[in-house]
Amino acid sequence: MTDNAPAGPPPAASPESSAPAPAPATGVPYDAVVLAGGGARRLGGADKPGVQVGGRALLDRVLDACADAATTVVVADPRATARPVRWAREEPPGAGPVAALDAGLRLSTAEYAVVLSADLPFLGADTVHRLLAALRDGDADGAMLTDDDGRDQPLVAAYRTASLRGALADLATEHTEHAEHRGLTGLPLRRLTAALRLTRLTDPLASFDCDTWEDIAHARARIREHGHVLNEWITAVKNELGIELDVDTRVLLDAARDVAHGVARPAAPLTTFLIGYAAAQGKGDAQSIAEASAKVADLAIRWEAEHNGGGSAPDAG
What we know:
The chain is of the alpha/beta class. Helices cover 41% and strands 13% of the residues. The protein has helices at 58-65, 97-105, 125-137, 161-176, 189-193, 213-223, 226-241, 249-262, 267-281, 286-309, and strands at residues 30-35, 52-53, 56-57, 72-75, 86-88, 112-117, 142-146, 152-160, 198-202. It has a seven-stranded mixed sheet, sandwiched between helices. Strands 2-3 form a two-stranded antiparallel sheet. Strand 2 (52-53) and strand 3 form a beta hairpin. The N and C termini lie far apart (67 Å).
């Protein structure tokens, strides 16, 4: 599901969908720029955006967090992604994060731009919306997260696009005048953010990024913790199967529990499959699943009552 920009061979993915992005929950239209072209030296040069955490590539996890962006630009060589994106590349490739951000921003037309790295396993849409709301409600040029040590995370941030473009242009002009620097090549992000008025929000979990294999191991272990594993697994399954339906897992779990208790344990997973199949025969939406689940739960209760009643006739009164 990719669109190539600039021109080049397409990645192994489905054609870009023409469906518009959903409206942001904040009511703030925005574009997303995701930087995914670094060298990952601390990972031994591994393909970091493609490293899987919870059964999903790190890049796809980040793309899920900004799924309601009007346009999403990934600055990297094209690859298969879980949803449609546009592609950009800094010149020359490997010129650094500031040059990459500039390349991605050239494809943005929105008033606000959310800028993200591709290695944020715990970033969610709620954090993206919180950054946008802070930017909308204030007069700063950007709103960024800080990590648990209070360090700025400029690649987990929302910016006013005009302010960002102005700062990038000033920085490029300043460094083109020096022989040792050309344009934005090799510049650290702190040189860019130093020129902006920023609001800072603290979120140690959402700002956690994966720079080392130890970080990857930590992220994988955390996802398997009891409070996270079910939602993570369901999301991974939906992603694998190409399902965009919001499922109320409590409804399905309740139905499975009733069936396991009132009928037999092996009947529970088979029944949930049949619930999904029945829902697909209807509208295939969350309401269809809820209605099918309610019917099955009622049937399981009747089944158990019949069993508990044995073969005795009802009381005559």
